[in-house]
Write a structure and sequence with these properties.
alpha/beta, 5-stranded mixed beta sheet, Helix Hairpins, Pyruvate Kinase, Chain: A, domain 1
């Protein structure tokens, strides 16, 4: 049985750990608010992009753009894997990495482009050769998204990869985050329910070709505008996924640190009771020894 001193040391250690988890919980709560604000600020651009895509899709018949054509079938699939830069967020990083592995099992070969230090480390552990990698917590996520989009676009056009797929976390609620796999290139004219922008999904499904065709005039032509808009669509989709991953990570970390703080409190209570029992047993033992010694002296 542990001594009173050992139990006291464990309680002191747990209290120090609890202070750290409380501080991380408060930091995560503050950062998730900023991440949510960043998502809200990006929403008007997403809405405008969705409306323009809806008009263009209804106005064009064919577009001579590499993003609209099938990729090189003999090339590996390009996976943009997004994770956090840090851990201490439960199964947040392992879940998205597992989702990428599940997707890769259905392909003969894959090429990873990682955003986030945890994703980079996981890809290296898988035995894949190093490819371009970017941190999620960069100063400018817009610049990072632009670099990622340019790199995967060049590789797709050159036939180095056959498609561009992003695997990232989606923030369902503060208590739930779900890995999401989205195919970005080749671009499909009829967007499915798995496309990235929620508002874009609704607008592109609800607005029929008859309603949107001719509603906006494009110069020099709808085909020309769409060919310039598709790279922006890829860039902003990656940027949106980075914002989503950021918010989801802080939500997962908030929940993990809350659970860690609560568990530390329970352990402290249990160890305090055990320490009191041990101290009581030690006092009782000393009293018994004193009484036994007194009785022995009395017998003599």
């Amino acid at each position: 049985m542990p001594s009173v001193r050992d139990l006291r040391d464990r309680i002191r250690s747990l209290k120090n750990t609890q202070q750290i988890t409380k501080a991380m919980k408060q930091v995560a709560a503050a950062k998730i608010r900023r991440a949510e604000e960043a998502r809200k600020r990006a929403r008007p651009y997403a809405d405008a992009l969705a409306e323009m895509l809806a008009d263009l899709m209804a106005a064009v018949s064919t577009v001579d753009h590499p993003f609209m054509k099938p990729g090189n079938e003999s090339a590996p699939a390009g996976i943009v894997l997004m994770s956090a830069d840090k851990g201490l967020a439960g199964a947040f990083n392992s879940n998205v990495i597992h989702a990428a592995e599940v997707f890769a099992r259905g392909r003969s070969a894959v090429a990873y482009y990682t955003v986030g230090i945890k994703a980079r480390n996981a890809v290296r552990r898988m035995g894949f050769s190093d490819r371009p990698t970017w941190p999620l917590g960069a100063t400018s996520k817009v610049a990072t998204a632009r670099e990622v989009a340019e790199r995967v676009a060049v590789d797709f056009v050159n036939g180095t990869i056959s498609e561009v797929v992003v695997v990232s976390q989606k923030l369902v609620s503060m208590m739930s985050q779900r890995p999401e796999t989205l195919k970005l290139v080749p671009f499909q004219i009829s967007l499915s329910a798995s496309e990235p922008f929620d508002s874009a999904q609704d607008k592109l499904r609800e607005r029929s070709a008859a309603e949107s065709k001719g509603a906006v005039e494009f110069s020099p032509s709808p085909e020309f505008v769409l060919s310039r808009l598709l790279p922006k669509y890829l860039e902003f989709t990656l940027y949106s996924a980075m914002l989503e991953t950021d918010a989801a990570f802080f939500a997962a970390q908030l929940v993990a640190m809350t659970n860690a703080t609560d568990n530390a409190s329970k352990l402290i209570d249990e160890l305090t009771i055990a320490m009191n029992n041990a101290r009581q047993a030690a006092i009782t033992k000393e009293l018994l020894e004193i009484v036994g010694g007194a009785e022995a002296l009395g017998v003599e």
